[in-house]
């Protein structure tokens, strides 16, 4: 039996806005995968720096255009040498990252989705081939490890456990997770969030008792320069907004955790030289 008959169609979604310097690296990591049952969806927020044109040129070089809608700058294409590899590209204004991610979900027809946003990439070119046999439909989410790039001199592999308690809520990185598409279409991302929409989404999945599978496979390389990678007051407040939906005293307990655990660590790391900060990271989970 051929791979295309055995394993599911996977939708990979990339969100980008004004980042022509990094989009090709992300696209290469998807297109270069040795798993061909792929639908690659790129959502651009109507970039003005040449990103849109870069993506369009990339697709035109590799693919045959099968559909074009100039009215909303949307195109579909099929890869010339990979029969089961399809592109969808939409470029239009959005109200933020989660609006863009929802647009990608709306276009997805695969059984599973992964978000590999601009600047991030798959850990290697065999990730999807290795993951595909593990995509069991009895699970709502399947997630693995992520290589976190802190700077040019330091990287760290992390596997995240689910934490859903009074002090903090923590799930996996979306780059390292494969989510059943029907769950994404059911719950979508709350567009009111700026940086913690994934925590809100995963909380909905978790609280509704969908099964979660952890695998010991490194899936993605994640750059900490991304929008949700910094500790900010917005992140703190959005964490609170998620937690108080499910836990009565979360505002108080998470505030204590933030003040006496998170902030001191961040302050110490920010005042230390990079080499020492990275040395500390090596010894902390």
TrEMBL record:
Coiled coil: none
Gene3D superfamilies for the chain: Spore Coat Polysaccharide Biosynthesis Protein SpsA, Chain A
GO molecular function: transferase activity
Glycosyltransferase 2-like domain: residues covered: 11-171
Pfam families for the chain: Glycos_transf_2
InterPro entries: Glyco_trans_2-like (IPR001173), Glycosyltransf_2 (IPR050834), Nucleotide-diphossugar_trans (IPR029044)
PANTHER family attached to this UniProt entry: GLYCOSYLTRANSFERASE (PTHR43685), GLYCOSYLTRANSFERASE 2-LIKE DOMAIN-CONTAINING PROTEIN (PTHR43685:SF2)
Stated name of the protein: Glycosyltransferase
Organism field: Helicobacter typhlonius
């Amino acid at each position: 039996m051929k791979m295309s008959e055995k394993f599911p169609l996977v939708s990979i979604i990339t969100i980008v806005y004004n980042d022509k310097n990094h989009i090709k690296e992300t696209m290469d990591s998807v297109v270069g995968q040795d798993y061909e049952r792929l639908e690659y969806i790129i959502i651009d927020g109507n970039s003005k720096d040449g990103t849109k044109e870069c993506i369009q040129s990339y697709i035109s070089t590799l693919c045959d255009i099968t559909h074009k809608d100039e009215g909303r700058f949307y195109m579909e294409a099929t890869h010339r040498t990979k029969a089961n590899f399809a592109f969808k590209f939409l470029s239009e204004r959005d109200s933020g990252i989660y609006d863009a991610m929802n647009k990608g979900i709306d276009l997805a027809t695969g059984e599973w989705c992964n978000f590999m946003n601009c600047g991030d990439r798959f850990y290697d070119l065999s990730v999807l081939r290795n993951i595909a046999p593990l995509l069991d439909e009895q699970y709502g989410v399947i997630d693995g490890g992520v290589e976190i790039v802190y700077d040019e001199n330091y990287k760290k592999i992390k596997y995240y456990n689910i934490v859903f308690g009074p002090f903090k809520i923590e799930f996996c990185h979306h780059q390292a997770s494969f989510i059943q598409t029907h769950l994404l279409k059911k719950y979508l991302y709350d567009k009111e969030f700026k940086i913690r929409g994934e925590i809100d989404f995963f909380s909905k999945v978790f609280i509704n008792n969908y099964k979660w599978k952890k695998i010991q496979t490194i899936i993605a390389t994640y750059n900490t320069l991304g929008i949700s990678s910094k500790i900010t007051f917005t992140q703190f407040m959005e964490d609170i907004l998620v937690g108080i939906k499910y836990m009565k005293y979360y505002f108080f307990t998470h505030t204590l955790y933030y003040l006496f655990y998170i902030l001191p660590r961040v302050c110490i790391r920010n005042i230390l030289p990079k080499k020492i900060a990275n040395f500390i990271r090596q010894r902390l989970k």
